[in-house]
Structure formats: C-alpha cells, structure tokens
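Reader question, answered in our methods column.
A reader sent in the components of a multi-part assembly and asked whether the whole thing could be modeled at once rather than chain by chain. We filled in our standard form and ran it. Here is what they sent:
COMPLEX SIZE: two components
ENTRIES:
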Amino acid sequence: MAEPEVMQKIVSLAKRRGFVFQSSEIYGGLRSAYDYGPLGVELKRNIVAEWWRAMVYEREDIVGLDAAIIMHPKVWEASGHLAGFSDPLVDCRNCKERFRADKAPKVAAGTEVSYQEGGKKGGKTLKGVAERGYVCPNCGGGDLSDERRFNLMFRSSIGPVDTIEEIAKYVETHRDLEGGALREALDGVIRQSAVYLRPETAQAMFVQFLNVQESLGMKVPFGIAQTGRSFRNEITVEHFVFRSCEFDQMEMEFFCEPGSQAEWLKYWCEQRLAWYQRFANHPERLRLRQHHPDELAHYADDCYDVEYEYPWGWDELEGIASRTDYDLNKHAEHSGKKLSYFDPQKPNPETGKPGLRYVPYVIEPAAGATRTLLMLLLDAYHEEAVPDAKGEDATRVVLKLHPRLAPYKAAVLPLVKKDGLPEIGHDIVKKFLQAGLFVSYDEQHAIGRRYRRHDEAGTPYCLTVDGQTKQDQTVTIRYRDDMRQERIPIERAVDVVREKLQRGDR
RNA sequence: GCGGGACUAACUCAGUGGUAGAGUGCAACCUUGCCAAGGUUGAAGUCGCGGGUUCAACCCCCGUGUCCCGCUCCA
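And here is the structure of the entire assembly that came back:
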C-alpha cells in the first residue's frame, strides 16, 4: 500500500492504539509537536536500544556520550548555527555556503562574475551576475538566495534574572537608539545570558572529543555515539512526525585518519543500510543515495543518505556525511584548544621518525529516531483479507514490527474469564515481567478480538491459557504474522519467547 | 512563507438555519467460548477555538488553531 491514505491510517492507528498523540491536544494542539503514548514510548526506546546495541555494545571501537542539551553558546558560534540570529544570512545556491550578507565581498551590482561549479577546484566554470552588490565569500558566485534572518535554534536564557528586565533597563538608558542600531544593541543584551537548545547532538561529540579519547585511551579510528533530543525551528513541518521541531537523534561521529575517509564512508553506508533492512519487512524500500556534488555542504567531501520510499516518495532517513576535519578545526579555532590526535606508531612522513600528529577526519552517520519510528510503522502496516468466524470477508490490520522492536513482547490471554484461567494467566505475566520482558495481560472480550487487537499493536506472540492448560501445564503460542499456533509448556514460555526475540522469529 | 482542502463521540463518517446521528470501539452482565461471535444494558460530543449576522448558527460571515495536499524552503 503506497497511497497517501496509508498515512491517515497510520495517524489514526497511532492514536487509537496509544503510539502517538498530537501534543497538547485538548488545547487545540501545538504545531508539529507530538507525544509518544504507552506503546509509542516502548517502540521508540526499543529502536534507540537496538541502535545503541549495534553501534556501541556489539563493537569495541565506539563509546557513548550523553551530553547536556544546553551547551556553551560558543559551541554554536563555532559550528555556524548561531550566525543567523542577528544577521541577515544568504545561502549560496552554487556551493551551499551560508554567509552574512554584510561580511560578503563587495562588488558593484551588475558586475559579471565567474566561479567554479560547486565551489570546488576543477569544477566547471560558471558565469553569473552579482545582482545584489556582493558575491559568495566561498566560491565567488552570484547565484544567491534572499537575505533572511534564520532562527533555526530555540533561544532561551540562563540565570535567575529575566532578560526582559535587562532589556527594559537598556532601552530606558538609551532612548536615542532606534532601528538597526537598537536591534543590534538589544541583541547584545540578550546574548549576555542567551543559551540555545541544541539543534543536533553532534557538536557535543566534537567538543568532548579529547576528553573521550584520553579518558578511555581510544585509538583512532574510533567513534563516539550519542542519542537524544534536538530542537529546530523548521521552516516547514510536514508528514506527521517526519519533520518536527523537537525530535530524537541517534548520531555517531567516527574519527579516522585523513585519507581513509572514503573507505570508512563506504563501510558505514553498508552498515547503516543493513541495520534498517534487518528490521524491515520491505528492504527494497530502503536505499542509499549519494549526494550530487552541488548538494554537498562545503565542509563535506562526500555524503550519502539512507532513504526510504515513503508514501510521498523517496526521502531521507539518515545522512552519512564525510565531514573532513572541519568540525574539529572550527572548535580548535574558537576554543584555542588543540583538537588533534597523536599516533606514536605512525611515522611522520616529513621526518621519517615515528610519531604523527593530525586532526582526524570524521564520518557521521546521523539518524532520526522519530523518523525511524515513522518508517517502521509504515513498513509494518499490513491489511490482509481474512475470512472471519462466519466465513465472511474481513480485513485484518496487523503491524508486522520486528519482535525486538514491538512494544509488547507477548500478550497473555485466558480463553475465558473464569475457571481459574485468569489466575494462571497472571502467574505467567509475572514470570515475564520478572524476566524483564514487557507483556500485556488481556481478558476483555472474545479471544478473536484480543488476537486482532494485539495484531494492531504489533504484539508478535500471544499466549493463550485454555482448559487443557490446567491438565498438562501447556499454553498455545499464536504467531502474529501468520496466525499459526503451537502448544508449549508454561515452564518454558519465557525461554521460548526470549529465544525467538533473540533470533527475530516471526 | 504562498495557495487549496479538512476539522461533528475514542476511531471512521453522515447530517439539517429550528431538541445532535450511524457503524466500529469502549464499559457491565449473560451464553463453558481459539481468530473483530451472539444477546441485554450503558457511558460518551458546549459539532477545533473566538467573534459576528440572526428570533434562532454544527450549518452563513470574519478571525484564529491544528492537520493534510501542492509549491517554496530546509543541518
């Protein structure tokens, strides 16, 4: 099913079954903010846990980090995120540089200019006209966007004194100021206590590069992984949770020796694509797409997107960028700290002696956890024509989520609500919960409805307690994807489910 | 940011300028019951929000919020 209506069905199901709710719904909702309900929070946590397992626990060369959401404002000055708050910014359509219009090289309006395609040496030479009286400081091009003030980041202030007090005081003592001068002065006042919610988790990993490397004695190549909430004032929000202002990221910065980046980029592209495909019912709806040279940010020497075929078409799921030494250099420059790595084994090509100091290059697989959640819901959503008890056509809606990602690992269902069956059921539930497996006990309505309800919730296994259970201590295990049933001893139920989860059995 | 559409019960939707409807779901009980079973009963909506027109507005007008679809934009 690829029609746009599948999105409506997902949104409806997400609400009905407690996956995703509109934020602040009773107050009319808040633009592009979503809350994850009882099942949604489980799914999201499972996604992040699987990512962490693949990136950190299953290998020796990557370690974790959990940095503060609010960082020193200079972090964002160095990264370039802060520039847009007070200054009109312009995007170069040729090399993708974003720059301050007032700091750009001036040329007389109407002058003909020539520049290299993509801002890269050896690129095709293009010609254009500097219509606005300045050109791109990076490539010299004249193909520029309008001047705009971007407020990509959410700004707040730190400290007990409300910034408005400072502003009021300033205005009262500077009544002569107006227009741009006033704006600039007030911006200066605000900035004294201004802090920003991180627009990405990545920067903390660059900023803490040395601490992580030294404290754990990490040897290049190695990576730092982090998951967490990020915030962006997106110009456009769209497609349910696909692009929202507050979202969860799963990012890893992999530091490697200059010259090896192409190889590592290839490696990470393969790893990351395979990770998604491992959990997907439709691996053919996932692909890698290399960025065109004119798409690349000027600090990247290559970049791939992991894309998914959403109902609205192929779109991004994860970006895997080769960021060169740009970030470490920027932070070294702004902080005055030397952010480099010394390899005592490596011979220095200049002296021939062992010992080489260099600034590592970085490969960055940056994934969206909330985006992954949407992709998995879309991938898992199935409608099947199944005859009902009366032999009439009925539709079965089933979320074929990978068992390890499914919110409930199993549902325990007494066939009837009497004859001691509920008691047996509760005992089984207790065993699962003690084993750390999240399961649901459900005795409402007929057994068939309960199966279908859990199909919609993506519960991979249903354990049904029936009359026979009392005689031979067995229950039936019913599989979500094909509805087949088997009998297993209660004694082994936890182990059976655990083994199936381990293997990903459906 | 621009244009178009939508908003009525938890979900999917009817509806008329004059007392708010259906199906599903939900809750309770009954029927010894393995794939949305049958029966009985019940709860649930100030019709997104705020103004205006009118004797009377869910319906007409204005504003606003949210979502969707295009475009635009996009670390």
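What stands out: The longest strand of chain A covers residues 313-324. The CA atoms of residues 280 and 376 of chain A lie 7 Å apart.
Send us your own complexes using the same form.
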